């Protein structure tokens, strides 16, 4: 990611770079209006050089890379104080803990499916996102981690993060003990529509620009 590629795209709001061979995030600090950044399915082992996006970035997609705990805790990356970040996707990486996200009080959705989170102690760091004043974490996707095999998986996640309304594909009941209610057909269709729209957008960007964003 050469900064010269994006130097003149000062009004860019979305940048989709999935399925390339990117090893380092860079060159985006001057994109002062960027709201969505997608660097999925690349060769990242760390998240760096996001300084300058703290006030605008709303969605960050980093699934299918090789990011571990250390790589997720870089000072110029996820450790920044993002003011608008609501959606973070780090599915299918190498995380063993949720510690890198403990300060992200604006998060609504956290995707960490298919990582290596083994114990509930490793989830505890984000308990503040469900209890701290102003925190609003309502959806967590944590299936296909080692803890997912626990019989009381959803119950315990709900206890750790009381604000949760959805765990994986399941709406959480109002008992406070992790009971699960199936989604209505309307809710399922709406979720499918959102996923389809994202997939179409990504495919369009890849076909038109080979992964390059357009201003």
Explain what the structure shows.
This protein is α/β, with parallel strands linked by helices and 215 residues long. The protein has helices at 3-6, 153-160, 185-209, and strands at residues 14-16, 36-38, 59-61, 87-89, 109-111, 139-141, 166-167, 170-172, 180-181. The chain has a single domain, classed as Leucine-rich repeat, LRR (right-handed beta-alpha superhelix). Helices cover 17% and strands 12% of the residues. A nine-stranded mixed beta sheet has the order 1-2-3-4-5-6-7-8-9.
Describe this structure in a few short sentences:
By secondary structure, the chain is α/β, with parallel strands linked by helices. The protein has a 9-stranded mixed beta sheet with strand order 1-2-3-4-5-6-7-8-9.
Rg of Cα set? 17 Å
Helix content: 10-25%
CATH architecture: Alpha-Beta Horseshoe
Q: Name the CATH homologous superfamily.
A: Ribonuclease Inhibitor
Alpha-carbon distance between the termini? 17 Å
Task: List the keywords.
nine-stranded mixed β-sheet; alpha/beta; 215 residues; 12% strand
Q: How is the secondary structure organized here?
A:
Layout: H1 3-6, E1 14-16, E2 36-38, E3 59-61, E4 87-89, E5 109-111, E6 139-141, H2 153-160, E7 166-167, E8 170-172, E9 180-181, H3 185-209
Parallel strand pairs: 1-2, 2-3, 3-4, 4-5, 5-6, 6-7
Antiparallel strand pairs: 7-8, 8-9
């Amino acid at each position: 990611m050469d900064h010269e590629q994006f130097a003149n795209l000062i009004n860019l709001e979305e940048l989709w770079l999935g399925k390339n061979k990117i090893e380092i995030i860079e060159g985006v600090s001057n994109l002062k209006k960027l709201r969505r950044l997608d660097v999925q399915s690349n060769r990242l082992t760390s998240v760096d050089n996001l300084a300058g996006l703290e006030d605008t970035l709303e969605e960050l997609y980093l699934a299918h890379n090789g990011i571990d705990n250390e790589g997720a805790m870089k000072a110029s990356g996820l450790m920044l104080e993002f003011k608008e970040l609501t959606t973070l996707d780090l599915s299918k990486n190498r995380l063993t803990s949720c510690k890198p996200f403990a300060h992200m009080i604006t998060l609504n959705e956290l995707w960490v499916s298919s990582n290596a989170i083994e114990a509930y102690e490793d989830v505890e760091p984000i308990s503040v996102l469900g209890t701290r004043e102003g925190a609003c974490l309502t959806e967590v996707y944590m299936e296909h981690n080692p803890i997912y095999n626990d019989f009381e998986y959803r119950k315990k996640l709900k206890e750790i993060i009381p604000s949760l309304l959805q765990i994986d594909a399941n709406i959480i009941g109002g008992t406070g003990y992790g009971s699960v209610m199936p989604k209505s057909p309307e809710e399922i269709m709406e979720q499918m529509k959102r996923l389809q729209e994202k997939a179409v957008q990504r495919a369009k960007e890849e076909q038109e620009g080979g992964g390059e964003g357009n201003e």
